[in-house]
Amino acid sequence: MRADSWVREAQRESSLVDALYKARNLISMHNGITVRCDGEEWALDFGQELEAIDAALKTAGIDVARFRQ
User: Fold this and answer.
1) Which single residue of 4, 31, 51, 59 could bond 46 by disulfide (Cβ 3.0 to 4.6 Å)?
2) Whole-number pLDDT of residue 69
3) Which CA distances in Å does 21 have to 13, 29, 46, 56, 61?
4) pLDDT band at residue 32, thresholds of 50, 70 and 90?
5) In angstroms, rounded to a whole number, what is the distance separating the alpha carbons of residues 16 and 51?
């Protein structure tokens, strides 16, 4: 692999990891929030989405253990 190809690939991967971090942060802020609408009430549960993001980050070599503190 040429050096410039490697650098471009690393930049793409870095952008993807950054986007996953941002998505995880925003989703985790809203996870468990109680929603009220038309007299009904329920809690938002984004557990599956957070697990999917954690799996993607783990695949990218990121230690996700610190997120579960």
Assistant:
1) 31
2) 59
3) 12, 12, 15, 10, 13
4) very high
5) 17
